[in-house]
Amino acid sequence: MKITDIKATTVTVPLTAPLRHSNGAHWGRFVRTIIEVETDEGITGYGEMGGGGESAELAFAGLKRYLLGHNPFQLEELRFKICNPTASLYNNRTQLFAAIEFACLDIMGKKLNLPVHQLLGGKVRDQVPFASYLFYRLPNEKGEAEVRTVQQLIDHCRELKNQYGFTVHKLKGGVFHPDYELECYKALAAAFPQDKLRYDPNAALSVEESIRFGQAIEHLNNDYYEDPTWGLNGMRRVRSMVRIPTATNTVVVNFEQLAANILDLSVDVILLDTTFWGGIRACIKAAGVCETFQLGVAVHSSGELGIQLATMLHLGAVVPNLAHAADAHYHHLVDDIIVGGKMTYENGAIQVPEGPGLGIDIDRDKLARYAELYRELGGYPYDRDPSRPEWFPLVPNDRWADPNA
Ligand SMILES: [Mg+2]
């Protein structure tokens, strides 16, 4: 089997409302690039990457010289063709390779009439549990769906819990002063005493502020304490002073960092991202290292549509040591580009796809509609806040948004 072409289409799909985070916001939509890898046997595989536009489409087009004629089953060879570690000093293609790996696995599964999880060792669970992902939100175009006050946050959490069945809640923080976010976090704990909580301010806090915040929530039903501060050394200092497992999706995102973390422990739970790590297979390999050293594993979300969500489900299905609910932004989207519409949650979990390959298909009409919407709206700066045009954060930050504004 040979790869004959690769197509990339950037789309934008609306969110219920703009999602705020420590660096800015998702401005009411996600921008993703969908790829289609074609073969000489008429089988097409799908992949997805975050961000997009002309540059992403051209980046994939530029990989044709590496891909055309390559057998999609020869994934390990392809990794070295595209992601040779020393060549990558000049040209880091990890995220591009991840999208191509998804498509190649999709092709393999379709050719063999097997779901991807069967190619990856076989599933050990039928559903993957997810955490609610609570964001402070700006009002949407209708002036609705704002999450800013403590009561709005509690209401939002209850709405998501009732609708999807979540029993683990992750608060994305780093937007307001830590004292205000502490009040919010404690209010969530009081409102949902049976449920587990995670706090993730995207490394916005200083080490000292992280220790203060962490010690103030130690007695609550915490799942883990995610990236309170920046850097392995900062996280190590926090970990030495706070009795909550630490977690990261920022300072351990490759094998070099994983090794460094194991040799001098800073982070207890590694959030694996099928894009950041360079594919589902790299995540499984990292999960194996974590299993050996008895580190925790969870699944990170970098803002997925259905194709990427499928990669997260196949990953979650085959990793035995997944002791934490996965993260997904998925329920903040109003639609998806896959056939059948958005995948559904039941009791806070999503069923692992059982069809051949990734087990999802692209809805051509929706792909065209959301590609058109992208052409209309363009990209947005992820690290800017539309409500504070002049603002940018420091790390650690001290330029917090005003919860009364
Ligand atoms: Mg995070």
UniProtKB/TrEMBL annotation:
InterPro entries assigned: DgoD-like, Enolase-like_C_sf, Enolase-like_N, Enolase_C-like, Mandelate_racemase_C, Mandelate_racemase_N_dom
Keyword Metal-binding: yes
EC number in record: 4.2.1.40
SMART domains: MR_MLE
Reactions that this protein is recorded to catalyse: D-glucarate = 5-dehydro-4-deoxy-D-glucarate + H2O
Example GO molecular function: glucarate dehydratase activity
Segments traversing the membrane: none
Family annotation (SUPFAM superfamilies): Enolase C-terminal domain-like, Enolase N-terminal domain-like
Top class in the EC scheme: lyase
Entry keywords, A to Z: Metal-binding
Pfam families xrefs: MR_MLE_C (PF13378), MR_MLE_N (PF02746)
Record pathway: Carbohydrate acid metabolism; D-glucarate degradation; 2,5-dioxopentanoate from D-glucarate: step 1/2
Domain Mandelate racemase/muconate lactonizing enzyme C-terminal positions: 150-245
The protein's name in its UniProt record: glucarate dehydratase
Organism of origin: Paenibacillus montanisoli
